[in-house]
Amino acid sequence: MIIGQYIEDGVNWLTDNFSGMFDAINTGMSSLIQVIESVWIGLPFYVTIALFTGLALWKAGRKNAILTLVGLVFIYFTGFWEETMQTFSLVLASAIIALAIGIPLGIWSAKNKTANSIIRPILDFMQTMPAFVYLIPAVLFFGLGTVPGAFATIIFAMPPVVRLTSLGIQQVPEDIVEATKAFGATPRQLLVKVQLPLAMPTILAGVNQTIMMSLSMVVIASMIGAKGLGEIVLQGISQLRIGLGFESGLAVVLLAIILDRITQNLGNKQKNE
Amino acid sequence: MEKIKIEKLSLVFGKGKSKALKMLDQGKTKAEILEATGCNVAVRDANLTINEGEIFVIMGLSGSGKSTLLRCINRLIEPTTGKIFINDEEITRMSDKELLNIRRTELAMVFQHFGLLPHRTVLSNVAFGLELQGIDRAERDKKAEETIELVGLKGYENQKVSELSGGMQQRVGLARGLANTPEVLLMDEAFSALDPLIRSQMQDELLLLQEKMQKTILFITHDLEEAIKLGDRIAIMKDGVIVQVGNSEEIITNPADDYVKSFVENVDRSKIVTAGTILFKKPKLARLKKDGPAVVLRTMRDIGVTSLPVVRTNRTFLGFVKIEDVVELKKKEIKTIESIIRDSVMTVNPDATVEDMLPLLSKTNLPIPVVNEDNHLLGLVTPTSLIAETTGKDKEEINEIIQKAIEL
């Protein structure tokens, strides 16, 4: 009980003393989300579908392109197009921020033992804590709405990309690293020219994981007022409307599959059968 | 001219190095130091001088500290104490920036497991060192292409290195090293991961390249045959200590201790031991103008031989005289031996190996005369000593065998 008390005090102290900072973050994040949202909701649905299908065709092959096309058309006909785009925008915004923080953290923890020994337990904590728990401080910091949803999502979705970036860099064979040093590479050249390119498949696996986890969290985040498909799911639960719940749930699943197939193959140069 | 100098270099791994160094100074053994401090002595008091343009081989078994010593030279591993100089500049005192610069321009390295970038093409791997120096693309590609041609990889420029065989990959590794036009090549077991046929081929090519380039090459190997084939000079390491330095012949004919001896035992000596080493230096001679048949005959009887080499007073070799001819001459009371010299004799120079000389034995039962470029007689190689070198038996045994053969 005492630990709970401390954490409550701590969070209260943060909200009291750093409200200016949280406000600033709030404004920044909400404008980022709004910009992304206005793009995706503003685009006519057929343009969006064409864009996604094209990307899938380019990166993931013909089979996945057909899957993408069929999936998105299906979503359009369920009538949840706008909600889907809201969810997607929130995923995109959260994932961008999570990656922007997570990849540098991963690099740092691969290069620095002390950093690694601090970051690792924090990641364990972040990954095992039930996802719903992040919603509470998010609400306290940012109130209800989309931004706290994004905040909780970022925290929940960041660990895989940190871990896999770090792992990828550590897995670069020692003899290649040694050879690079022997030819007079600076630490920066070593990172940019050797470690990151060789770690790229692993890092991209982390990116994929982070995006997938963002999606699952964004749905949960509708409990604190994040917009999108989660709202409909929540409606379905609270009003016990199985049909509505399934329809919106199915849209989430389809969006997940499409995002997974595309991001899984981001590393491939091109894939045309 | 000396290129690299290593002075009193020691390397200790582990905590409590200062105590370990003190014990090193006191002459304690590796095992004693390990027990007392937990430190592992990888290299101990190494002193070496490597000359410009030579292939210097450091040979030793795994764990002998040879690769560690090599990495001290470009400071991939920092030596605990001691100094290393290149062109009289002290590498061990260089700042990070100077060190980067010397790694980029003067010390290139070739690795056992190649250490190539699998996501890049042959061309961009070879150009990698130049890329790190910040040389623009057109220039570095041009230079890389030249080097690729040098190592015989022309036509493979745009292949990914992961698609090449081991031998080809190591050519890329070699080309990458050479593209920087370094003065020194550090080769760490460069051919050890290759299969024997390819390895031997690469050794030949390295020697051929070296003839053109005249780089200073420091080559690490655990294979004595390789060391002998490539090395102008060889250093042998054991437990972090350099036990012997010398050319291959010195090491084979005069091993410093039992450890070196045990290595040398299995080597095919006939390719390494030369006439200069096994010749008999002061043979009895017949001097053309001075010695008449009577003197020659007496000398032959004194030392119990049936032939003598004939020289002018300045030791120019002329041929042999045989006992039966001398006896004949004496009967005819001719005073000079000029008329009976048999001059159709094959001579060898001091660099001829035992292998070169063995075929000569079948044509003659005379000793083989060793002469210098002015045709001055340096000494004789007897058939007995030749056989001794090839078989490893000692001379008395061979004489016994020959005796028995004659009796039969």
Automatic annotation (TrEMBL), chain A:
CDD domains: TM_PBP2
KW Transcription (keyword) present: no
GO biological process terms held by the UniProt record: choline transport; glycine betaine transport
Keywords recorded for this protein, A-Z: Cell membrane, Membrane, Transmembrane, Transmembrane helix, Transport
Domain ABC transmembrane type-1: 84-263
Any GO molecular function: carnitine transmembrane transporter activity
Record-annotated membrane-spanning stretches: 39-58, 65-81, 87-110, 131-158, 210-230, 242-259
Domain of life, per lineage: Bacteria
Annotated GO CC locations: ATP-binding cassette (ABC) transporter complex
Family according to the record: Belongs to the binding-protein-dependent transport system permease family.
Name listed for the protein in its UniProt record: Glycine/betaine ABC transporter permease
From TrEMBL, chain B:
Residue span(s) of domain ABC transporter: 21-264
GO cellular component, one term: membrane
Organism: Sunxiuqinia dokdonensis
Keyword Nucleotide-binding: yes
SUPFAM superfamilies the UniProt entry points to: CBS-domain pair (SSF54631), P-loop containing nucleoside triphosphate hydrolases (SSF52540)
Keyword terms of this UniProt record: Amino-acid transport, ATP-binding, CBS domain, Nucleotide-binding, Transport
UniProt similarity note: Belongs to the ABC transporter superfamily.
Pfam families xref list: ABC_tran (PF00005), CBS (PF00571)
Record protein name field: ABC transporter ATP-binding protein
Signal sequence region: none
Domain of life of the source: Bacteria
Gene Ontology terms, MF aspect: ATP binding; ATP hydrolysis activity
Record carries keyword Nucleotide-binding: yes
Classification lineage: Bacteria, Pseudomonadati, Bacteroidota, Bacteroidia, Marinilabiliales
An example Gene Ontology biological process: response to osmotic stress
